[in-house]
Amino acid sequence: MSSFVLYNYFRSSTSFRARAALHFKGIDFEYKPINLLKDEQHSPEYRKLNPMGGIPTLVHNGKLIPDSMAIIEYIEEIAPTPALLPKDAYTRARIRQVCEIVNASMHPYGNLKVTKYLGEAHGYTQEQKDQWVQKWVTQGLDALELTLPEFSGKYCFGDDVTLADIVLYPQVITCLRFHVDMTKYPTVMKIYNNLDKHPVFMKAHLSRQIDTPEELRKP
Hints:
The chain folds into 2 domains: about 5-80, Glutaredoxin (3-Layer(aba) Sandwich); about 90-200, Glutathione S-transferase Yfyf (Class Pi), Chain A, domain 2. The protein contains 9 helices and 4 strands. The chain starts with a strand and ends in a 15-residue tail after the last helix. The protein is an alpha+beta fold. Helices cover about 50% and strands about 10% of the residues. Strand 1, helix 1 (about 15-25) and strand 2 (about 30-35) form a beta-alpha-beta unit. Helix 1 packs parallel to helix 3. Strands 2-1-3-4 form a 4-stranded mixed beta sheet, covered by helices on one side.
């Protein structure tokens, strides 16, 4: 059995982050599916691992690390090469700024528990949920499109994959799922399309996980 166990869900963008970071570092892990649509994240057994009932949760040698950003920082510290953060303090800070735009100002609005609440408590249709997500995530996309041209090459910060790429890529997938008009964000989409061909991102993609439904699978 692997000393790394990742509890995650194929479609979760935060789960993608953790998978991609582990693959990037070349760390083998046991994949433990948690089906969000069946509320498995709220089971008493899983709540012992992650009190918020969020995903992902990493278990390493019996030690628990819940939540994607904590997981990635942990992996970066125990397996520093290849690096997801450069040595330059300023660039590291700006990478974290980009991650914060996504993690704090975009991701929460398309989170399943939020969109589910909008439907159950307020009767939102899927079209109204799309509009909700579009309103809030475009603010983050606007900020990214202003920020990234100063630093980007093939990817967010030059031609090497960084933490910013691991956080950005699955968020773009979420934006596309909620029919956000991405034509306004050429820099973001250039980076996304380049990452879409990267072996780590292909391996971590939602369409290639053990719990991916057949109709969503890709070779």
